[in-house]
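ARCHIVE CARD
SHELF: 3
SLOT: left
DATA:
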Amino acid sequence: MSRRPRSVRPSRSSGLRQRPFGEVRNPYRPMEILSVDQIEVIHEKSLMVLRDIGLKVDSAVARDLLAAAGADVDRSTGRVRFEPAMVEAMLTGIPAGFTIHARNPQKSVYVGGNSLTFATVCGPSFVSDLDRGRRAGTLEDVRNFVKLSASLNIFHHEGGAGCEPLELPPETRHLDMMLAQVTLCDKGWQPCWMNTGARARDCIEIAKIALQTDDAGLRARPGIIGGINTNSPLLLDDGQAEGLIEFARAGQPVHITPFTLAGAMSPITIGGSLVQQNAEALAGIVLGQCAARGAPVFYGHFTSNVDMRTGAPAFGTPEYAKSVIASGQMARRYGLPIRSSNTTASACVDLQATYESDMSIMACVQGHINVMMHAGGWLEGGLTCSFEKLILDAELLQAQAALLDPIDLSDAAIGMEAIAEVGPSGHFFGTDHTLERFETEFYDPLLSDWSNYENWRDGGSIDATHRANLIWKDILARYEKPPIDPAIEEELEAYVAKRKEAIGAEG
């Protein structure tokens, strides 16, 4: 029987215990909260929305593709309606999974089936830590966050460079962020900037340079995961649509994630929101197939509820967890991978952040979510990325990964000889069976020495958040840049400089 990955016990000075980098797979059956009949109700109601109401599609390029495939396009309003037969036909022939090929081949990961891919946070404008508090993100913060993403083995994917460097021009900052992602980290990565076709093309060109391949090679061996949002309710803007088209034509996987918040951008009930989410996701998937038949376009989930007293989004709630699990069922109904998120609405790293993230992570695991975006560092409903939260999330994810490790029932693992050796009323601390395994047999937390209260108190009474603060700074101090060919790095820097010059001239 195969053994589970063993945790690595580091030096005492770092206080960090990590599993080796490796794919995580869920051996358990996915949780199901919808019956087969209920799944079909959501599917049929979604097709009714697409046929009778449709979506407004701002992009003329996208409207032309949809019209050519048989959609009913109103050129005067941009409204696009989809016949159910067209949707059903377009849902066939889409890959059920794909491999993301990292710059370091040993860190390539498969997405699909029962695989779980953990990706760090992307999108926040702000960053926080215990030393400097909440503040606008900078390029230094981006670079530090990417270094941490590279160093924490539990994260399979650099999810989006952490935060936006707000001191840089918005027209070109995506180039600096991607340069950090591909040079400071050797894992697969996700760009956060598919809001125009040109920026999506920048992502593709940088991936080609980083992997030293061409269009055909990248199409055959994808290197990045993209994602777009619909502007719920029932709107697909031109930039998102054209970013999707670029990625589909380049053969790069892209998830279609509606921004459905119950009571604000979708019906106040979870059932109504799931119908609208499903309709919008299917419309985006169809567009991807119109751009390139057989492109790896897949299902995205983000449905949650809203605090109706304030209008603020709520995350990590029971409603959010139910929508995660139900969305996993819908994605499996279509034979597609699915993306969801680790979320919290808490404004600081506190108990609320922990229990909301724990509920989000557990729902993603139970629902067999293939790509967990924002798995590390998300805070304040996605407005802030937190360095301490990144470490605490890594702790939660390592625990979940350990839960999914198989139980070893080999003769060597059971240790009948040790049971006979100890016999009645003894202990197992000193047996060879224990001594051979004591450093690796059980889950090791990142943040705790499994100490008792007296030792914890004598050591300074430090809590988990403050320990996380020490750990991320220690990781940065020890960070070593992954090897990269200097010629490749020079080519990447030259591309970034050239594109900045061109964008400046356009502006």
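SLOT: right
DATA:
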Amino acid sequence: MQHFVNSRLASFMVAAQPFLPVQMTSFSQSMPFARLSILLACACMLLTPAQAWAHTADRGFVMLLPTDYYLAGGAAAVALSFAVLVVMPPQALAALLSARRRLVGARFDWRMATSLISFGVVACLWFAGLFGSRDPLSNPLPLVFWTVFWVGFTLLVGATGNLWRWLEPWYGASRLILVALGRGDAQAPLKLPKWFGHGGALLLLFGFGWFELVFPSPDDPALLAKTLIAYWLFNLVGILAFGHSEWTSRVELFSVFFGMIARLSPVQRSKESAGREALFLRFPGAKVADAEPLTPCATLFLLLALATVSFDGLMRTFVWLGFIGVNPLEFPGRSAVVLANTAGLAGIWVSLSALFFAAIWLGNRLAHAGVPFAKSSGLLVWSIVPIALVYHFAHYLGVLVINGQYALAAISDPLANGWNLFGTAGFHVAAAATAGYDAAWIIWNLQSAAIIGGHLIAVILAHPLAFRIYGGAGQAARSQIPLALLMVGYTVFGLWLLSSPTGG
């Protein structure tokens, strides 16, 4: 081996001799080849600096951050906020949540028109899904539904209030049908049984989560269009049979979900004199403090909403893929893990629900109060709303940034036939918007701040709810210890999900 190396170096020096200074050639003759090779390599590195080129991965830039510090800081922030709230007088917290500032007053009488316009837009998206491009990144239906609506609109509702009340596509159509049938404001022919509660919304939310996370092709435009058409017809029949208000408040999952999320908004509607309504600016989630206890099914609905987003992050981690026996670097496709992910989705929902109910039960025991378990769990579950919203923001932030750009380009050419309806068909998608050190740093810190801030708001909202349940400040504080510990643990879990390597 040494003879081979020396022969190769000798050949190299003979070939390079015309290009080397005389001193170098003479010096090389008296110097061992091994030492000379080291000297030449060092000289090349020092005298010829150049840019280094590397191949980038499709998933973007992975920044190694001091994750342990983020986890510890987030947990400490939530724990310290609970400690501060324990000693805070209940009157001060009540004053904070009841404070409001009037923004604008107006009559909200355009619901019929906005609902019909919304239905027209939805129908156009259905048409694009059925007859447009088969590419999910070129067809506007999957982009608008999964990114603009499910991600962006959810965050908008959490920030500005329940816009879904004016945009849901059933109100206008059902009113027109009832007027045409001569029923107008007549009472609905059927009535939903009280014992059913929010069971319909709960079943639909689990089906929606399964379709999004487990079903092999939720982005297929034609299949998604047919599914959404069937869903719209199903709800239209239910509204005509049971009444719009009753059906949308207990069965239609988006109406139920957005109605809960809207309570977190700092912008709230309130009636004034003469039947006018006005907008007021309040502390985020202040409306939760006045909420009524949720039914058991509605409680499970909120917990399922949080569990769905959490599992969406968990199922892509190396930990989960390794647990179900899948090599994350050779992902076999979603169809190969349908059963495992179905069990995982149900399992994380059951686990989260069990932990929440155990915390409420233990809190009742610590408070030494004979409060009905259904009342305490139905009220304190409202504190989950800010956690569900910030998890939604943190988990889907990257999707919103990238796929939102694709949606902007797709809506101008919905049928992929060369149209440019809004002048954005040629929009250049900046796929590197979430890649690179600076972008990764911004996104990670936005996600971390959102999760920690959401849990802080949850702790703040849990205290006035506990005061309503138990009355005394001491009992309320003791009852919150298990729930606060659960929130600290879930903060750490959420930050861990954001920092874990993912595959598939």
